[in-house]
Structures are given as structure tokens and as C-alpha cells.
Design a protein that fits this description.
about 400 residues, alpha+beta, Creatine Kinase, Chain A, domain 2, nine-stranded antiparallel sheet, 15 helices, 13 strands, about 10% strand
Length: about 400
């Protein structure tokens, strides 16, 4: 592959606004993960979980199929899917929605009925960023496709946190369009990542004890492989910066003859990096804000069902309202690896971060108000305000309630 083609290709696939692409109407989507658990806190065998979901979904028109890699995947009538992560984590991926209002409606049709049906079978879905009880040694890799096997081998040589991330963590990803101000949205989202980490920190315990961080899931990402994770400071050319990041990261699926994992740049120099391999490589990069032609915000820990759309409300209010976007850009300092680690470790117990987070959340709520109920319905906005008053405005994150509330709250 010719190096000269990489940057134009990256602009087209990941940073289309830098080419002057005409923005489509702003949409929003979520990928919401939960840890399926039995009453004693142990994981539900994947085959058993798939069978129970299939029995529930028949009457609702859910069809069981397979991913391109052969893993079970439920297709939903309104669009979207229910699938599984390597450790058996359940993931609901919504279809792209024209608004938070629409997103709330499609999510309401899927998750509360699923929670109730599984609860009748003695299965709960824990909305928490990291399994607080189980040992990583007792959490097998349940999806053993080629991608996950390569990833497991690679990460095992880097840090013990790779296995924990793959098999014991759960997250909420929010997907946003780049819009007419893609560059501003990219800068604000990266700058907001430390505050978002602290606001939605919900993983302070592991193996039955306090893990010392408010978001141990964030710690897993900080420690598993810094060459393919993190955030990006403001730059004149986001695509150029991201290309350098992608070239520094080692290829996961291709060790050399000695078993060493070489940066993508080395394979390119050897003339052994083709287009298909490059595309697969991009899917193994895990920054907090991942550019995919839209923005995938990967920062929030998984949350209980009642709060699972709050990150989407906050991010839509923050970036889809122009005044909020401008105000947030003025408020937020340049992001850094240190600020991201501090946010995961201290959460909102850090006074300076707590102040910034409260201001940012307030800016987002005001942005939602200006967007109006057609974009952010009254119920979703009220839920976000309740979250803010219960947690963020008091310098607390959901992690501060672990041990005082049930891990799962079924609807």
C-alpha cells in the first residue's frame, strides 16, 4: 500500500468533514452493555443466555443470526441488534435515531421488556463498568473468533488489564454525527473525556474489594496498551494526528517471524500492509473518541437501566447545540493523558474536576433546553437533571453508591 494514499483514505473514512463533506442531519445512537449475572453474582453461561433471549424474542419478532465472525446476534424489528462481547457481556446496539426522543422510544421497546423477561428466569443485567466480584482468572473468553483470539494473545503480552477489559468490563458508547462543525465537535469531545470519565465513573470495586479508582474500567484502558488508547489534543489537522497514532500502533493480527508485534509503520515500510489489513487495523484502535465517519464516544462506564441514556442526553446537548458547543470549548482545558488518568482514579472527588464537570453538565442541559422536546424529550431531560442533582452537582459519581444499592435495577 502506498503511504501517500493513507491520509486521503483516512480523511474519507474517518474524518469526512476535513474534505468538506456535506453533513447529514444530526443523528444519535448508543451501544449499551450489561453484565448478565445469576442471583449469586456469577456469570450466566453464554449458550444459556442466548437460549433465554431467543425464547423471549420470538413473540417480538427478534431473529437470531450470526455476526460475520460467527458469533450469535439478534436482529430487532425496529433496527438495531442485541449481541455479545468476549466475556459474555450483553450489548444492545440501537439503530441511528433522528433525536434523543426517538432513541428513547426504540430503547424503551427493547431493554425494559428484556430486563423483566430475564428476571423471571433468575437473570439480572448489571449496569456496572467492571465485574465487582469475580476474579479475572475465572472469567473465560467466551467468544473465540479470530479477532478476539488475536487480541487476547496480543494484550496478554502487554498487561494483565487486557484480559480484564475484554472479559469483565461493560460500557456505554454514544455515536454522534460530525455535522457542520466537525472540527469543533472533535476538539470538545476529546477535551470533555476526563470530565465524562468522572461523571459516569461506575466501577470502583473488583474481586470483592475497593480497587482504589472510581472507574477501574478507565484504569483498564489506561494500562492495557497506551499505543492504541487515549485522547487527542487540539490540532490543526486531526486526520494527520490520527494517522501518526495509527501508524505507531502495532498490528494485532500479525506478529513477525520472531513473534514480535511491530508498528503498522514498519509493515508499511516493508511493503506488507495492504488495504484490507489497514482497515482491520483501524478497528483495533481504541481512543476515547473514535472517528468512524461519525464520532464513537467510548468513555462512560455502564450504568443501571434507569440512567443508560443519560450520556446520550449530555453529549447531544453539548455538541448539537451551537451555543453549548462554543461555551464548552471555552470552558475546557486541553486534554492530557494525566488528566484522563486522574479522572478515572479520583472521579469527582477531585475538586477542580468536579467544578468543571458540573459546569459542563449544566451547559449540556441548557443546550438540550434550546434544542427543544422534538430533539430531547421532557422525560429524557428530566432523567438527566435527576442524575445531575443526585450525583454531579454534589461531586459524586455512580461509583460512590456501589455497596449501598443493588447492582441491577430492573424495570
Amino acid at each position: 500500500m502506498d503511504r501517500r494514499l493513507l491520509l486521503p483514505r483516512l480523511r474519507e473514512t474517518c474524518f469526512p468533514w476535513t474534505l468538506g463533506a456535506v453533513p447529514r442531519p444530526d443523528r444519535v445512537g448508543v451501544e449499551v452493555e450489561f453484565l448478565p449475572r445469576l442471583a449469586d453474582g456469577t456469570a450466566v453461561p453464554l449458550a444459556q443466555l442466548v437460549k433465554r433471549i431467543a425464547a423471549h424474542g420470538v413473540a417480538r419478532g427478534w431473529s437470531l443470526g450470526r455476526t460475520p465472525l460467527g458469533d450469535p446476534l439478534f436482529h430487532l424489528p425496529a433496527g438495531g441488534t442485541i449481541g455479545f462481547e468476549p466475556g459474555g457481556q450483553l450489548e444492545y446496539s440501537s439503530p441511528p435515531a433522528a433525536s434523543v426522543t426517538e432513541l428513547g422510544g426504540t430503547t424503551e421497546e427493547v431493554l425494559p421488556p428484556l430486563f423483566r423477561a430475564l428476571a423471571e428466569d433468575g437473570v439480572r443485567l448489571d449496569g456496572v463498568g467492571l465485574d465487582p466480584l469475580g476474579r479475572v482468572e475465572d472469567a473465560p473468553l467466551l467468544l473465540r473468533n479470530e479477532r478476539y483470539l488475536h487480541m487476547a494473545r496480543y494484550l496478554a503480552g502487554r498487561s494483565p488489564w487486557g484480559a480484564r477489559m475484554m472479559r469483565q468490563t461493560a460500557a456505554i458508547h454514544v455515536n454522534l454525527d460530525f455535522g457542520a462543525r466537525g472540527g469543533d465537535r472533535w476538539r470538545v469531545l476529546n477535551a470533555a473525556a476526563p470530565a465524562l470519565t468522572a461523571i459516569f465513573a461506575n466501577s470502583s470495586r473488583m474481586e470483592g474489594g475497593d480497587g482504589g479508582w472510581r472507574s477501574l474500567r478507565s484504569r483498564a484502558w489506561r494500562e492495557l496498551d497506551p499505543e492504541r488508547t487515549g485522547i487527542f489534543a487540539s490540532a490543526e489537522d486531526a486526520a494527520d494526528v490520527y494517522l501518526a497514532f495509527a501508524l505507531r500502533a502495532p498490528l494485532i493480527a500479525r506478529p513477525d517471524a520472531s513473534g514480535a508485534y511491530l508498528p503498522a509503520a514498519r509493515w508499511l515500510e516493508r511493503g506488507e500492509l495492504d488495504g484490507a489489513t489497514w482497515n482491520r487495523h483501524l478497528t483495533t484502535l481504541f481512543p476515547e473518541i473514535r472517528p468512524k465517519g461519525y464520532f464513537e464516544i467510548r468513555t462512560p462506564d455502564a450504568l443501571p437501566l434507569e440512567w443508560c441514556l443519560v450520556p446520550a442526553v449530555v453529549l447531544v446537548g453539548l455538541t448539537y447545540d451551537d451555543e453549548a458547543l462554543r461555551t464548552a470549548r471555552e470552558l475546557l482545558p486541553e486534554p492530557s493523558a494525566e488528566s484522563l488518568a486522574r479522572a478515572g482514579r479520583a472521579g469527582l472527588r477531585d475538586p477542580a474536576l468536579a467544578r468543571t464537570a458540573a459546569e459542563l453538565f449544566d451547559i449540556a442541559l441548557e443546550g438540550c433546553g434550546r434544542l427543544g422536546p422534538a430533539e430531547v424529550d421532557d422525560r429524557s431531560l428530566a432523567t438527566a437533571r435527576t442524575f445531575f442533582e443526585r450525583f454531579t452537582s454534589r461531586g459524586r459519581s455512580p461509583a460512590d453508591e456501589i455497596g449501598t444499592r443493588p447492582l441491577a435495577e430492573t424495570a
